[in-house]
Amino acid sequence: MNPNLKTFLAIFCFIWGVVGIVLAVANLQSTPADSTKAVLFGAVGMVGFVSGWLLMRRPAY
User: Fold this and answer.
1) Rounded-to-integer distance, Cα 50 and Cα 37, Å
2) Residues whose CB falls within 8 Å of the CB of residue 59, separated by 6 or more in sequence, listed in order
3) Among candidates 19, 1, 15, which has minimal Cα distance to 57?
4) Fewer CB near the last or first residue (10 Å), C or N of the chain?
5) CB distance 20 to 45 below 8 Å
6) Statement: residue 30 has pLDDT above 90
7) Where are the beta strands (DSSP E) in the chain?
8) How many CB atoms lie within 10 A of CB 59?
9) How far is residue 41 CA from its own chain's centroid?
């Protein structure tokens, strides 16, 4: 995979993770706390963080 594309995708995934976590916090702080959506957004944000981390890792060979 092209290193520039890999870096772009990793940055996109990290931004995706931040947006997911921010939306989770926003849903938890709403007046009737919508915890179902908050958990969903939090899980999607964590998937973004993990995928960005996996893309930025160096190969172990």
Assistant:
1) 20
2) none
3) 1
4) C
5) yes
6) no
7) none
8) 4
9) 9
Structure confidence at residue 1 as a pLDDT band (50, 70, 90): confident
Give pTM, 2 decimals. Answer: 0.83
**Torsions phi, psi for 58 (to 5 deg):** -90, 145
The answer, yes or no, to whether residue 34 has pLDDT greater than 90, is no
For residue 31, the SS3 value is: coil
Q: What is the dihedral of CA 56, 12, 7, 42, to 10 degrees?
A: 0
pLDDT, mean over the chain:
91
Tokens of 48: 């973004």
CA distance 58 to 61: 9
* Residue whose structure tokens are 């959506």: 37
pLDDT of residue 21: 95
